[in-house]
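[Protein data]
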Amino acid sequence: MRRGTALVAALCALAGAAAVTLAVVAGPGPGLTGYVSEAGVVDSSYAWTYRIGVFALAGALLLLAVALRVGASHCHDAALRVAVTLLVAASLCTVLSGAVTCSAGCPLPPFERATVADLVHGAASVAATAAVVFAMLAVAISPVARRRLRRTGVVAAAVSLPLAGAVGLAMLLVGRSPLVGVLERLLLTVAVGWALATAATLVVRDPTAHEHGEPTVREPTVRRRR
């Protein structure tokens, strides 16, 4: 069940990323000067392509949480439980982000006047991304996770945390600009890459079986003589 769920999660992540990328590149959006979400506005001819991609990514996050939870032999580990909870929350927020589209330009304060839908969409998108980043960190610090999972989480979190901070500061200080557009795309690329790498690891191996904890040589059985 773990392997099948992780495999489907990886496929959903690939399909979702491809659909969103197609909508962003081929759609009538402003390119790197705008947000990724602008590909999903109602007036865009690729709006449904974008939404399907977002929903596929939400499914990938949920399936990744299931694969991580089912495959974990040490359910008492708090870090992995937190990671699973964060992935579920990220999935739900991603669904909300895809269901509630923003208006043209996806305006956000403090530089633009935003509608209620804009605020809901923006908050859901930010919450989903933040949950994924903190899930990376939770897996990275898990004392029972496999070394490969921890390393992937460490690298992804080390790249994502500065990017997330830079995106937040740029949105508050600069507003809608090529800087925000590039940083946002980099952050989302790292998040999808981490999900794919984690799912691929779960397809092959149990997430909590330590390589260094497994015996490499079996001791011969000693028979007692009566």
Q: What stands out?
A: The CA atoms of residues 137 and 206 lie 19 Å apart. DSSP finds six helices and no strands in the chain. Residues 2-204 form one domain.
